[in-house]
Amino acid sequence: xxxxxxxxxxxxxxxxxxxxxxxxxxxxxxxxxxxxxxxxxxxxxxxxxxxxxxxxxxxxxxxxxxxxxxxxxxxxxxxxxxxxxxxxxxxxxxxxxxxxxxxxxxxxxxxxxxxxxxxxxxxxxxxxxxxxxxxxxxxxxxxxxxxxxxxxxxxxxxxxxxxxxxxxxxxxxxxxxxxxxxxxxxxxxxxxxxxxxxxxxxxxxxxxxxxxxxxxxxxxxxxxxxxxxxxxxxxxxxxxxxxxxxxx
Amino acid sequence: xxxxxxxxxxxxxxxxxxxxxxxxxxxxxxxxxxxxxxxxxxxxxxxxxxxxxxxxxxxxxxxxxxxxxxxxxxxxxxxxxxxxx
Lengths: 248, 85
Fold this sequence. Notes:
The complex is a heterodimer. Helices cover 19% and strands 32% of the residues of chain A. The radius of gyration of chain A is 18 Å and the shape is globular. By secondary structure, chain A is of the alpha/beta class. Chain A is built from five helices and eleven strands. Chain A folds into two domains: 13-104, Elongation Factor Tu (Ef-tu), domain 3 (Beta Barrel), CATH 2.40.30.10; 113-242, Nucleotide-binding domain of ferredoxin-NADP reductase (FNR) module (Rossmann fold), CATH 3.40.50.80. Chain B has one helix and eight strands. By secondary structure, chain B is mainly beta. The radius of gyration of chain B is 12 Å and the shape is globular. A five-stranded antiparallel β-sheet of chain B has the order 1-4-5-6-7, with no helix packed on it. A three-stranded antiparallel β-sheet of chain B has the order 3-2-8, with no helix packed on it. The A-B interface holds A 3-10, 45, 47, 61, 102-103, 105-109, 217-219, 222, 239-245 and B 1-10, 12-13, 16-17, 20-22, 24-25, 38-41, 83-85.
């Protein structure tokens, strides 16, 4: 329930990989079955822990991309070339393999269908993952909350969840893309990084009091949040989740 | 702007492990400027340890240092933390 503390210590759980979905050349979605998973809310994340044979441990946080669905959990992972964890998750982990994770974690960057809309979602690259959980939860709850997603990607082939977003669009969901590095022939959409002018064109006005969620690399989130405040949106209505250069 | 900056969500797991309560929705009041805001909205910097700063005045609210078996948490910059129970 929103606003209610979730009591209970976090424990590490065993998660078994059951499926892998290739999203883009650099991004995969890993589907885990987690015994005893207590369920989650859209926007929450998990901490993933890998332990090497010599006992060395590495830990990273990944947003949950799936709507609540029993013991199944989807994490969308972008490959960071010199990363410590993401190359293992995206290239080596195979169905049947097990990792440790704890969660669900977080309650601040969360949206539940009962909160309604209008909803404004702004994502840079793989920052779309927790926002996708919100879109999926919205559909699962048959919510018609007015929702706009502004998604910044490098190119058309780098757009995560591209086909699913096209399929889900309509019925109150509008998806706007900007492609910052390369565009397919005939592209008529935005071709630059998200800025104040783009936000003013795309987002509901402050008088509509949208609930705003911004997720992406830290510089992206800073730019978007500052621009939204400049457009007179209520700072308290803007929730942010920054990736930082996590070292993947 | 520091590109390494994260936010309070980044330490949600650690805080919940210690306090057994979801802490990113807790409201922390800054001991310097008096602003009250969600722990999830704080600015988080990771180095040898973790520093959580007030998003309004940059005051260091909380410092966290871990080793393999223990965690030290300093609340030197916080006036109060309001937790829903």
